[in-house]
């Protein structure tokens, strides 16, 4: 079947956020006003990608400063002070708690009970364990344990900084005409606050790189990077679900099969050696995920703490699985019935958000999973900042709650009821962004990306492809990108916002 070329804007110039986004335009007044023609034409060393990378480095450095009170004392001399100062991190505590200080090999050497609290083995996926071990090799194993833990956190922070820059640059390059959207990632408050709480940035960086490869129509490279990301954290594997339904609607089966096979093979290359020679240690991540009870940040915790008969772990596992399956089926129906095929980033964000919101734990650093996907799905500063405000409030809320529970009779911090409201707020922020993305799918004329004339810049082979399988209203013409006449905008000169754009 002949596939007509997608309609493109009359100009291939970059889409400047200060010309299409009221919040970005207002914020730009702090640095001299909306972007000018010379910047648009790239007649400067300060290209968008370089600016995004430098801003990401600067914001990450501010995040290190935010952790400074704990670095100097709170991690070592007071349980509650690391919460009241909101600078907690797992990294220094697990240096000794998971045997790195004693040169134990992850997955192969069993941890003493008094060291790991009965954990037995490292409870992280293999590639994250490798990351942690490499950081341990670079840490001086001499001096006091406090000195070693400081170094271990600092080495990990340097490695995670590389991951943070990779994420911002990959997002800036995924949508070719929208590189300035990478500033949303670089300036995200949640990234500043949670980047060094745990090791999640490794999986997020690999996932962002995979999204970039798919946008360049390289399904094998996408699969390899997604397989590595899944070897570092479980959530990236869920991106194959949206890809499946999108490739079904567009008939792109060869690319989907290539991506899936590459994902599986890359995951096996990392996991199989450990699986064969240290199966008990390798399986700890999966058994721990199944056996752990309801934990911080989830609506299940609100239920458990307000019930005389709290739900069992088995019930929550089953119920959460059912909720994820039902929501994913709903997303599949949305994909096949939407008037235009949804963008890959939109569905990727929705699926990962569903997994997090329904999970029995929503740790503060899990927001990192969503940041690059949210930027690609809905690059609108107002909506992004509303969501980030909710997540920032929750970041403060969880540490104040832990301060309350660890300060004894002093009860310094946030009581249980206040913490429950913080959970509700950050869940509501995530659901709000999900609702806006769903609205964009149902009303593509409201989609910020498509309003400038693009179809699916992160979609690779899906970008502008004709539909071969649709349901309901989507079965009626027009049903693919070539029928959509996007606005022909000259971004080289100021364009007053239209009433419709103000409503976005």
TrEMBL record:
Stated family: Belongs to the glycosyltransferase 87 family.
Organism, as annotated: Streptomyces monashensis
Name this protein carries in UniProt: DUF2029 domain-containing protein
Source lineage: Bacteria, Bacillati, Actinomycetota, Actinomycetes, Kitasatosporales
Location relative to the cell: Cell membrane
Superkingdom per UniProt: Bacteria
Transmembrane segments: 45-65, 121-139, 151-172, 184-214, 220-247, 259-279, 315-338, 344-363, 384-404, 419-442
Signal sequence segment: none
Main location: membrane
UniProt entry keywords in alphabetical sequence: Cell membrane, Membrane, Transferase, Transmembrane, Transmembrane helix
Keyword Cell membrane attributed: yes
Membrane topology: Multi-pass membrane protein
Gene Ontology CC terms, in alphabetical order: plasma membrane
Pfam families per record: GT87
GO molecular function: hexosyltransferase activity
């Amino acid at each position: 079947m002949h596939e007509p070329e997608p309609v493109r804007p009359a100009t291939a110039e970059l889409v400047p956020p200060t010309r299409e986004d009221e919040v970005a335009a207002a914020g730009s007044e702090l640095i001299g006003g909306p972007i000018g023609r010379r910047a648009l034409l790239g007649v400067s060393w300060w290209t968008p990608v370089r600016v995004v990378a430098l801003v990401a480095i600067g914001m990450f450095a501010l995040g290190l400063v935010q952790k400074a009170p704990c670095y100097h004392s709170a991690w070592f001399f007071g349980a509650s002070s690391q919460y009241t100062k909101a600078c907690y991190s797992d990294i220094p505590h697990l240096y000794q708690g998971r045997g790195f200080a004693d040169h134990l090999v992850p997955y192969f050497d069993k941890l003493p009970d008094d060291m790991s609290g009965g954990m037995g083995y490292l409870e992280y996926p293999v590639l994250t364990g490798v990351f942690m071990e490499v950081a341990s090799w670079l840490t001086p194993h001499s001096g006091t344990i406090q000195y070693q833990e400081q170094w271990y956190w600092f080495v990990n922070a340097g490695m995670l900084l590389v991951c943070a820059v990779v994420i911002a640059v990959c997002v800036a390059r995924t949508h070719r005409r929208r590189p300035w959207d990478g500033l949303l990632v670089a300036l995200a408050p949640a990234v500043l606050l949670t980047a060094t709480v745990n090791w999640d940035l490794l999986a997020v960086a690999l996932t962002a790189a995979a999204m970039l490869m798919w946008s360049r129509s390289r399904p094998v490279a996408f699969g390899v990077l997604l397989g590595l990301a899944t070897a570092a954290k479980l959530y990236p594997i869920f991106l194959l679900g949206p890809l499946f339904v999108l490739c079904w609607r567009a008939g792109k089966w060869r690319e989907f099969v290539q991506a899936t096979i590459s994902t599986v093979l890359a995951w096996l290359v990392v996991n199989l050696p450990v699986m064969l020679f240290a199966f008990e240690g390798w399986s700890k991540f999966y058994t721990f995920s199944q056996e752990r009870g309801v934990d911080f940040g989830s609506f299940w915790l609100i239920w458990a703490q307000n019930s005389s008969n709290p739900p069992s772990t088995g019930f929550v596992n089953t119920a959460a699985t059912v909720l994820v399956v039902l929501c994913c089926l709903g997303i599949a129906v949305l994909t096949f019935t939407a008037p235009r095929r949804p963008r890959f980033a939109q569905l990727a964000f929705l699926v990962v958000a569903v997994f997090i919101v329904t999970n029995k734990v929503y740790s503060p650093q899990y927001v990192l999973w969503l940041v690059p996907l949210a930027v690609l799905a809905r690059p609108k500063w107002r909506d992004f900042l509303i969501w980030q405000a909710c997540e920032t409030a929750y970041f403060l809320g969880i540490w104040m709650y832990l301060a309350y529970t660890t300060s004894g009779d002093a009860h310094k911090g946030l009581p249980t009821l206040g913490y429950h409201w913080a959970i509700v707020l950050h869940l509501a922020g995530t659901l709000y962004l999900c609702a806006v993305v769903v609205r964009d799918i149902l009303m593509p004329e409201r989609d910020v990306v498509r309003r400038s004339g693009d179809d699916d810049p992160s979609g690779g082979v899906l970008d502008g492809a004709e539909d071969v399988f649709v349901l309901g209203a989507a079965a009626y013409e027009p049903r693919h990108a070539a029928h959509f006449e996007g606005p022909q905008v000259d971004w080289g000169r100021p364009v007053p916002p239209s009433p419709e754009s103000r409503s976005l």
